[in-house]
From TrEMBL:
Coiled coil: none annotated. Belongs to the TRAFAC class myosin-kinesin ATPase superfamily. Kinesin family. One of its GO terms (cellular component) is microtubule. PROSITE patterns: KINESIN_MOTOR_1 (PS00411), KINESIN_MOTOR_2 (PS50067). This is Kinesin-like protein. It is found in: Cell projection, Cilium; Cytoplasm, Cytoskeleton. It comes from Uria aalge.
């Protein structure tokens, strides 16, 4: 339930000289799922507990991370009969908000965007131009001109997401027929106001980010050339920036506390509040069981293991 043991496919059990240099490694996580796990199990163990926090005004972030073709989009979006984390989270969020409806007025707004080759595209309004990141007076990052949709219905959001996902940049590569070539970010903002007219009325704002990252990839495996190769370089660059931020955050408070450079890519700048600060963050790392993906699986597990060591100050 909590351990992943990664075996080296090229190891020969009879090779005595290399017996002490085995590349077999064990990683311990909060939760480990094998191929039999259902969407429901993954959702309940990773994300369900975050909803309460969003309603109380905390931020929450869920990442899907891993090499190309390991099922990140399936975990996040799912299929019609096996919906993923997006839909399950929103359904439970609306149920929880309806339970407080007698005392609180609430509005839920959402936006859905992709970061492709370091430019931001609005997936709910794909005809619009590329969007810019701006910082407002309170220091929070806003995206100028993004479409925000207010709704109180999870089905409506599902339709919008499915429509938005069709606008996502997907191209076939040798590793994956429908490889996502961009990072998709679904941002849900919950605002609540008490119905009792009190002096000094407070508004609670909780933000929920759900991020389906593009797969990290090696050009040798995806056999990319030309345009695909450039895309792959951009994808890897923003994932490297995210990795650098995670490294710096996980060493905070240690002997060599580092500066966290969120400005290296648009992805990390957008997720600045979700990595450090008052946010609960879950990373769902995906690996492939194939022996050809040994290196990718190893790097993914190291990356996720580092993310586990991040401690944030609220």
């Amino acid at each position: 339930k909590q351990r992943v043991i990664l075996m080296d496919p090229s190891e020969d059990p009879d090779d005595i000289l290399r017996a002490n240099r085995s590349r077999e490694k064990t990683y311990v996580f909060d939760m480990v799922f094998d191929y039999r796990a259902t969407q429901e199990e993954v959702y309940v163990s990773t994300t369900k507990s975050l909803i309460e926090g969003v309603i109380s005004g905390y931020n929450a972030t869920i990442f899907a991370y891993g090499p190309t073709g390991t099922g990140k989009t399936y975990t996040m979006l799912g299929t019609d009969c096996e919906p993923g984390i997006y839909i399950r989270t929103l359904e439970d969020l609306f149920k929880a908000l309806e339970a407080t409806a007698k005392e609180m007025d609430y509005t839920v707004s959402m936006s859905y965007l992709e970061i492709y080759n370091e430019v931001i595209r609005d997936l709910l309004n794909p005809s619009s131009e590329f969007l810019e990141l701006r910082e407002d007076s309170r220091g929070s990052i806003q995206i100028a001109g993004i479409t925000e949709v207010s709704t109180t219905n999870a089905q409506e959001i599902m339709q919008l997401l499915t429509k938005g996902n069709k606008q996502r940049t997907q191209e076939p590569t040798a590793a994956n027929k429908t490889s996502s070539r961009s990072h998709a970010v679904l941002q849900v903002t919950v605002m609540q106001k008490s119905r009792r007219q009190a002096i000094g009325e407070e508004t609670r704002i909780g933000k929920l980010f759900m991020v389906d990252l593009a797969g990290s990839e090696r050009a040798a495996q995806t056999q990319n050339r030309g345009k695909r190769m450039k895309e792959g370089a951009h994808i890897n660059r923003s994932l490297l920036a995210l990795g650098n931020c995670i490294n710096a955050l996980s060493e905070k408070g240690g002997s060599r506390a580092q500066f966290v450079n969120f400005r290296d890519s648009k992805l990390t700048r957008l997720l600045k509040d979700s990595l450090g600060g008052n946010s609960r963050t879950v990373m769902i790392a995906h690996i492939s069981p194939a022996s050809t993906s040994f290196e990718e699986s190893r790097m993914t597990l190291i990356y996720a293991y580092r993310a586990k060591n991040i401690k944030t100050q609220v």
